[in-house]
Specification:
With about 70 residues, the protein is an all-alpha fold. About 85% of the residues lie in helices and about 0% in strands. The chain is built from three helices and no strands. About 10% of the residues are buried.
Length: about 70
């Protein structure tokens, strides 16, 4: 029998997976920003300039935290 706690754990596992995917995306875009103009990242992703800037900043912050 599946319990409410089981469903809560399923949701938490999903949320953790999404959060890790977002961190991976941010790190990858931060690395890409070191090799290409931000304009090219915006065109390739379809994200707004503000979103790309935020993701790059998050990716760089995440990378700094990983190496510290």
């Amino acid at each position: 029998m599946v319990t409410r706690d089981d469903v809560t754990k399923i949701r938490q596992a999903y949320d953790d997976t999404v959060a890790e995917a977002e961190r991976t995306r941010a790190r990858a875009l931060a690395e890409a920003a070191d090799h290409m103009p931000q304009k090219d990242i915006i065109e390739a992703t379809g994200y707004s300039r503000e979103t790309v800037r935020r993701l790059i900043a998050e990716g760089r912050k995440s990378t700094e935290g990983a190496t510290a």
